[in-house]
Write a structure and sequence with these properties.
alpha+beta, OB fold (Dihydrolipoamide Acetyltransferase, E2P), six-stranded antiparallel β-sheet, 6 strands
Length: 162
Amino acid sequence: MKKTAALVLAMILLFGLYAFFVPSAWALSCAPPRKPIEELGYSDMVFKGRLVSETKDRLTFAVSKVWKGEVSETTMLYQNYWTEFTKGEEYIVFAVTSEGRMQPKLCGNTGLAAGFDEQALGESISLASRRSYWQQALIAIVSGALVVACAGIYAIKRRSRK
């Protein structure tokens, strides 16, 4: 009986020591965020936008400023299930592609735009100049068609005068 009690006491003591020396683990813990200009370099997309809708999987922003990435006036990101957003609030968003999906970075400077020093990110890019390849191609085709039509009209009028 004494041997059993001693064995149980020894096991409790060993498990107690083990629990005391095992480092704690967290599901996700973040290092202090980088400076905004540094995080800009590590992000695929950086913009300022107002959250207009939120579903279980997606966030939709009305974008007002862009610093990096292919961003349109309305931009959709996938949830990262860590960063909390409130509909109607304006945010500075640092996003990355993870598993083929664009989503806000888990840790860092993504947060409310109020109080954020936008000058720390440098000059923003105009949304108007961020046209997609297809938009640019369509503009080129329409412009070319107008030039050809005008040249044709000019040629027809010139012939009819003779």
